[in-house]
Structure of Fe2OG dioxygenase domain-containing protein:
Amino acid sequence: MVHQAQGQMVQEVAAGDLPAPPSRYVLKEKDRPTGGVAAPKLSFPTVDVRRLADPGDVEEAAKLRSALESWGLFAVTGHGMPEELLDGIRDAGKQFFHLPTSEKLKHANRTDAGEFQPEGYGIDRVDTDEQVLDWCDRLYLTVSPESERRTQFWPTQPPSLPKLLHEFTLGSEKVAKRVLEAMARTLGFGEEFFLAHLGEDVATYARFTYYPPCPRPDLVYGLKPHTDNSVVTVLLLDSDVGGLQVLMEDGVWVDVPVLGRGELLVVVGEEMEIMSNAVFRAPTHRVVTSGRERMTLVLFYQPEPERELAPVEELVGEERPAMYKKLRAKTFGDGFWDAFALGERTIDHLKIKVDQPEQQQQELKAA
Ligand SMILES: O=C(O)CCC(=O)C(=O)O
Ligand SMILES: [Fe+2]
């Protein structure tokens, strides 16, 4: 049976003008977000995907490599999508969340029997009374392959939204492909190296997330710390309001700045970490709230569900044994929802890390 908290939209809670969020959203003291450190504007990585497409452009390739090594995410320019499209889909997304709840619930992420399923409008899955809820509502849709789109979940209001989302999907796919091609080239492989493992019909999911104004941003997460269920993720952030933070290697949370007009963000996901045998790592990130509303649109790129997900042969050797066990992409994707509700990485939740000899030795010593 679905958890009773599943039916409560955060936007309605926020509209109640309470002085503080209800206890369901309040984090344990140790988890509460202290202010992130601002990313120095100059050192926040930005790459031009048009330049990445030129194999001779070693300077841009070096920027990409450095961004992947340090942040695991970077801003993107040169993607060719007009600013009107980006502004248009942002506006349409906000308009959708501003509709009356009854209208939005026509696309609810609960079946008539009350069961949760990922697609549609609502909050993320609630499994237990203990789970601290995130301060956001979302609309989650399959966008690719087109034959898998389930139109009953697609908003009909505002009427412009489906077409804008379709256009954004096309533009964003080019970004994801160019990035994956360039990532392959940074390792000395042909540009099809990663793409060939995803299949013809790369599975793509869109997530619009709406973070209502929060009366006490110090007590809640907009979105809890997580790594993405993707090979790569393309994000269209809010044009005015920040909130996304990334965990750096030294344990410090750093603010991702509000990006320049027309810029997108690309984030490495856990499936790339597996495929690349941890050459590329998926950064942990989270969202903090503020007194202002915020909306983002995120596209997750995943292998075809029946594909095998495993470290690519060429990146496994005596020096670097396989660090992850192989599994079906669908098994990983399904495992994500369980892991996310628990606040765990899918790789850890599904226990697919191979014990490395060094680790085993440490464990033996410790025993
Ligand atoms: O809203 C954001 O800034 C980030 C959203 C995100 O990380 C996600 O949906 O996985
Ligand atoms: Fe994310």
